[in-house]
Amino acid sequence: MTEWLLEALHFLPHHYTNLLLFCTLTGMRASECIASVRLIKNSESLVEGQYYDPERQILQHYKFPQIFIRRTKAIYISVVDREILRIAQEIDQILPSYYGLKKAIMRRSLSMRIKYCRKIYASWLRQSGIEPEIIDMLSGRVGKNIFLRHYYRPSSDYYKRRVLASLKQLQGRLIPEKRASDGGIVE
């Protein structure tokens, strides 16, 4: 999975690589990721603290239920720091679309496996020792288990620090040195 992502990051244009990186570092589905980038690029939602809460370091998807909370698929929050947020902000003025990403991948004879971004995110967090309940919550999978729904309340600071530390390691692994010289994302 990671090999596909690294190959796609190497061959795709800058705005699509940033979109794939943002998808991987937030664990969102492709449609959610594109909607999130649109909200981030809308400076009003960031300035007013409506979408990104800098104090808690989360994207507040729950404030936009018409976009992020659907009958069968929902995502409530994403833990991000300023660097991950900057990846989305650096996407070109022309916002990428799912169809455009698909075409760009096909033009470069790569297979369309954007779902790998979400799998890489969840796998990386689990390998970093993050509890499955936290990963499920961040991925928008809230279990039917009574313990999870009513009693499990992890300290936000506890999981936020651990998740961000893990994502920083993942980000360091995914962003090759070459991108810094191309004017891409610099860590």
Q: CATH homologous superfamily, by name? A: Intergrase catalytic core
Radius of gyration: 16 Å
CATH architecture: Orthogonal Bundle
* Major beta sheet summary: 3 strands, antiparallel
Q: How many helical stretches?
A: 12
Spatial shape: globular
Number of strands: 3
Element-by-element helix/strand order: HHHHEEHEHHHHHHH
Low-confidence stretches: 177-187
Q: Could you describe the 3D structure shown?
A:
This protein has 187 residues and is mostly helical. The protein has one domain: Intergrase catalytic core (hpI Integrase, Chain A, Orthogonal Bundle), CATH 1.10.443.10. Helices cover 60% and strands 4% of the residues. The protein is built from 12 helices and 3 strands. It has helices at residues 2-11, 14-26, 30-41, 43-47, 65-68, 82-89, 98-107, 115-127, 132-138, 146-151, 156-174, 177-181; strands at 52-53, 58-60, 77-79. A 3-stranded antiparallel β-sheet has the order 1-2-3. A hairpin with a 4-residue loop joins strand 1 and strand 2 (58-60). The longest helix is centred in the C-terminal third of the chain and has 19 residues, at 156-174. The protein is globular, with a radius of gyration of 16 Å. The two termini are 23 Å apart.
